[in-house]
Amino acid sequence: MPEEQLPETMNAVTAVNLALRGTEGPVYGPLTFTAPASGLTVLSGRGGSGRTALALTLAGRMASTTGEVTVLGETKRSKIRQMVAVAGVEQIDALDRDVTIRTALSEHLNWSRWWWTVPRRASQEYYEQLCGRVFGQRDLPPLNSYVSQISALDRILIRIALALHPAPIRMLVMDDLEQVRELDDRLQLIQILTELSQVIPVIVMAVNPLPPSPGVEYHLIKLHTTTPAKEQQQ
């Protein structure tokens, strides 16, 4: 993960009248908001506010119908996609529950290899190198554990670690904070995301504002489906 940070005068995200419509009506927006160049930003909205679609838009994986979005100074989706990692979106980064962590990491390790090269098997060293920074003081689950055997928190932390590689990644967008249902685990996740946000801006999609947690400061943007987002600083 790079140590480079955006200039304080530049927003991580600037969205102006950003909206997406589907065949059944509005998905999100219109939204006008900014996310600061550093720290943790929470985009909070009820069901129907299009949080996942918005996460994909901010990560350069989906186009909006109308409006403009600038991410890390770029407006082209191809450029944004190279710089922004996205995690927590089932359609993109879900881990197969019927395989071991080693298998999941081996697939990641061999994803970009030339077809004629011998597939490599993820080692404990690779596991620690890939996931150690995200897990921090939390113990890594055993490498030969099945994905189905580990906690929801450990699963999302592995997904975040995979999303942040290969470098350079300059921003993380995470969808659906509430997929970690246990409150204690969610508080740990918030702490970890806060630590990551000291290095790169982190944007999290959530139903509600974050529960109180010591040392956690964040920028809150409340999403509305048909009216511009209102911002408030927590």
Describe the model:
By secondary structure, this protein is an alpha/beta fold. It is 28% helix and 23% strand. Strands 5-6-7-3-8-9 form a 6-stranded mixed beta sheet. A 3-stranded antiparallel beta sheet has the order 2-1-4, covered by helices on one side. Helix 5 (124-135) crosses helix 6 (152-163). Mean pLDDT is 88; it is low at 225-234.
Keywords:
about 230 residues, alpha/beta, 6-stranded mixed β-sheet, 3-stranded antiparallel β-sheet, 9 strands, about 30% helix, globular, disordered C terminus
Q: Ends: how far apart?
A: 27 Å
The fraction of residues in strands falls at 15-25%
Report strand order across the widest sheet.
5-6-7-3-8-9
Q: What is the count of DSSP helices, taking H or I runs of 4+ residues?
A: 7
How much helix is in the residues?
A: 25-40%
Radius of gyration: 18 Å
Secondary structure tally: strands? 9
Uncertain runs are 225-234
Mean pLDDT: 88
SSE layout and pairing:
Elements: E1 13-22, E2 25-35, E3 40-44, H1 51-58, E4 66-71, H2 77-83, E5 84-87, H3 90-93, H4 101-109, H5 124-135, H6 152-163, E6 171-174, H7 183-196, E7 202-206, E8 218-222, E9 230-233
Parallel strand pairs: 3-7, 3-8, 5-6, 6-7
Antiparallel strand pairs: 1-2, 1-4, 8-9
Short description:
This protein is α/β, with parallel strands linked by helices. The protein is built from seven helices and nine strands.
